[in-house]
Design brief:
By secondary structure, the chain is mainly alpha-helical. It is 58% helix and 7% strand. It is built from 6 helices and 2 strands; from the N terminus they run ααβααβαα. The chain has a two-stranded parallel ribbon with strand order 1-2. Helix 5 runs antiparallel to helix 6.
Length: 115
């Protein structure tokens, strides 16, 4: 199940700590009938969010943290440019990106449904 909720960056500007945001999110899910821990929480590439999720009770219950699809592709793109540099290597990089994107889409497709 994928649930949409207020982004943490908006709440943090209003004086909430990340822990308070996570506690409020957990309460929101519980109030809407979800018991237990989510299997995965998807975030952007933010170390503070990842650390807070890993430190909360859900991590003890097996919740994994995943990067969003766009951030995953961006990370691969950045590292391919570093590892396979040069104008002459563009075709190889493009082929590698296409293969990685196919793998990522195959993994994401079964998980993409809304609540």
């Amino acid at each position: 199940m994928v649930c949409r909720w207020a982004p943490s960056s908006h709440l943090l500007k209003d004086g909430f700590t990340l822990r308070k945001v996570l506690d409020a999110f957990r309460s929101h899910l519980r109030d809407n009938g979800m018991t237990g821990a989510p299997k995965t929480i998807t975030v952007d590439d933010d170390d503070a969010e990842i650390s807070a999720i890993e430190a909360c009770d859900w991590a003890k219950e097996g919740t994994r943290v995943g990067l969003c699809f766009w951030h995953t592709l961006r990370c691969w793109d950045k590292h391919l440019l570093l590892k396979v540099p040069g104008v002459g290597q563009r075709k190889l990089r493009d082929d590698m990106k296409a293969a990685l994107r196919n793998v990522a889409e195959a993994l994401v497709r079964p998980l993409s449904y809304n609540c």
